Amino acid sequence: MAYTPQYVKIKEYIIENIKHGNFKPGEKIPSEKNLGDIFNVSRITATTAIRDLVKEGYVYRIQGKGTFVSEKKIENVRNHNAYGFENNSSLNEDVHETKSVRVIKVGSEFSEKMDLTETEELYEIIRYKLDDGKVNAVEYVYLPLKYYPSLKLREVEIGHIHDLVKDSCFLKQKKAKVYIEPVMLDEEQSEILGLDKEKPVLQLEKTTFSVEDKIIEYSRNIINSDIYKFYMDLDLEA
């Protein structure tokens, strides 16, 4: 069995307590001395764990007051094999509300993005992610009708888009490209999220490809960057 360093055990202990709501956003966590006592290790070991957690965004320190849980929800993008309101993301917590499902023309906006002619048709799905009744993210999903001939979206309970594509598209999904960037809100998104238009938010833009290299799904998630933060672990010894 592989040896787990004590500072890693302390990190895991704090992260699990944050995930399960035992340590809430803005709440002070046990001091480094207390953590040292709990795990029977030196204060230096506990300090190493806290420093890592600060770097990763789970907690923040206030000089002379202690260490507190970050207000943001932390996402390691390397742990995702699906993006958006999916099963391994904190974006999948709380309530998802489908606002609209309709068929639209591809038009000039999606013709180049999805390698389709402007006269072809798309399913458009718009969903909100709500936390205590507040919208923290908006998801826009576009599916080419020609790849989903038997799908009747209004008769389907929309769960994970990844599963919807897998179960309903007659082409097999193979890979996806995801881009994360800051963007400005439009008027409608500003009203939905209750944020000033001048405030940047995060956009996760995903394009899903089939085995035949056809684009079978395009989606955008507009995310309140006050709530979510994304990071990546790099293994420099690999």
From TrEMBL:
Keyword Transcription (UniProt): yes
Gene3D superfamilies: Chorismate lyase-like, Winged helix-like DNA-binding domain superfamily/Winged helix DNA-binding domain
HTH gntR-type domain segment(s): 4-72
Superkingdom in the source lineage: Bacteria
Family matches, as Pfam families: GntR, UTRA
Keyword Secreted: no
UniProt keyword annotations, A-Z: DNA-binding, Transcription, Transcription regulation
One Gene Ontology term from the biological process aspect of the record: negative regulation of DNA-templated transcription
Matches recorded under CDD domains: WHTH_GntR
GO MF annotation terms: DNA binding; DNA-binding transcription factor activity
UniProt xrefs under PANTHER family: MANNOSYL-D-GLYCERATE TRANSPORT/METABOLISM SYSTEM REPRESSOR MNGR-RELATED (PTHR44846), MANNOSYL-D-GLYCERATE TRANSPORT_METABOLISM SYSTEM REPRESSOR MNGR-RELATED (PTHR44846:SF1)
UniProt protein name: GntR family transcriptional regulator
